Amino acid sequence: MQKFIRLGDGYGDIFELEALIEYNRQRIKSGIYLHVENEPSTFVLVMAPVRGNFQALYTIYRGIPMASKHRQKYNIINDCLEKYNIQKVEMTTRTPDDFHDPEQYFQYMIGVLRLNHLLPPMT
What we know:
Layout: E1 2-7, H1 11-24, E2 28-35, E3 41-47, E4 55-64, H2 72-83, E5 88-92, H3 102-115
Parallel strand pairs: 1-4, 2-5
Antiparallel strand pairs: 2-3, 3-4
InterPro entries: DUF7147
Domain DUF7147: 1-119
Protein name: DUF7147 domain-containing protein
């Protein structure tokens, strides 16, 4: 079972994400940016499955501005991924506004990530 676990979108949450990466780097599969044109991006930190096949997907939902002058959060995350040699994936997706609520968007993204072999299939 894969589950999105939402972090906030402030700098404090970025720093918490850095600590999560530093202390759990052996469990991390990849970092994925979900871009939408002219909107802030979503970042997903994909963890390895644990007991019971639970797989955490830590996310900063729509919290990464991509305008060239506001890319500090993006740069902080990229530097951390690079420091620990964690695979980075960037993809363009449908806007979350196409969905009734964030949970529907997350279910859609689980399907997309499975189809792209970025998440394991259900067992």
